[in-house]
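User: My advisor asked me to double-check a structure prediction for FADH2-dependent halogenase PltA before group meeting. I don't want to rely on an old file, so could you generate it fresh from this sequence?
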Amino acid sequence: MTQLDFDIGIIGGGPAGAATASYLAQAGLSCVVFERDLFPRPHVGESLVPSSTRVFKEIDFLQEMEKSGFPRKYGAAWTTAQQGPIYSHKWEGMTLDQQVDFRFEEREQPGVDQNYTFHVDRGKFDLMLLQHAQRLGATVYEGVQVQRVDLNDPEAVRIGFHMGHQEITTRVRMVVDASGRRALLGKQLKLLVKDPIFDQYALHSWFEGYDRAALVKHKQQGDYIFVHFLPLTNTWMWQIPISEQITSIGIVTQKKHFAQSKQEREAFFWQCLESRPDLAEGLKKAKQLRPLKEEGDYSYAMQQICGDRFVLVGDAARFVDPIFSTGVSIALNSARFASRDIIQAAETGDFRKQQFSTFETTIRRGTHNWYEFISVYYRLNVLFTAFVQDPRYRLDVLQLLQGDVYEEEEPEVLRLMKMKVKEVEDNEQHLWHRYLGELTASAFKPTF
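Assistant: Sure, here is a fresh prediction for FADH2-dependent halogenase PltA from the sequence you gave:
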């Protein structure tokens, strides 16, 4: 019989990998995490959603988050500089405003007993979470890049990597790919499918001394995440508090708008901001702390996210778009759902694909709902703001924005939003027709 080194091998020590390791170590399974970087390291995805709190509570990490000094996030706001008759026109009782917002406390969220989540410095947050997994009993190797996974041996999954010039193999009962957008196992098994619709790119940096209060309606919005619509089609800016003085600023746009050279990208970043003078003026007074960093080609799916003796979690399984701060939330929740099936599989000694069917069904349902919700937003973002304002739909939209997307096959509010988009698409005389975005050629054709 083949000698095993660990029960579970985890590729990647980001939020998905560290949370998975925490759950499994808590359950008494021996697990090893291979992280190619040395933490801390900068990373995008700095604003969380409240569903993350459930994971923090279950792995006994919430107290560490409270001690961290991360800014508390009580809500979110969206702004636009657009003018025109659309803002004085009512359609089926729905009206528009140039700024909409909500607070998480407006809707009671099962399993979440606080009215805020967090904005995080991902360098610090990811390090804290990985160290937490290690304290719970996981073995962690940083600066070790996995090269390949061999699933051919029926008695052991073999994970191959290098330490210096030495080639080493670790034998485990099953493997969890949490390698992020590197998607090591998905690419090795040729499971990755690029999204034919979403092709967004992001440019982002940190700024010190930016006046975040410049566009707030009231003082309590100072700790919100802001999404600012820009005049360029399907282009927007995020504004995320990192500390009292530091703000993360990012521009997200379609690939066709994305400049090639570094100098062109710098110019494009500021041109986008200058399309909203109220934003550009404040940011020019601030100090840029980091060079602009780009993120691109990040929308993809996998033909399968589990199989005999493997599962894919977090960005290694699926990523759509950062518009609703979904990245870390999906990473943490996929770790939560996958761990339940892995623990049960370990108890029976059966690691075949069907043992992970609950995880697969749940995470596919949730990410599909995210995909549809994001499609609504990009196709007709004025509709999104109308639904946020409308008391008939506000709390149902907030449920999605809180991260509770995994239980229903299709939330009713999402069905209604899709129906309204279709009405606008089919009526060229509709006042909202001219505001249809280009990112989706038609509403909600099956993508994968």
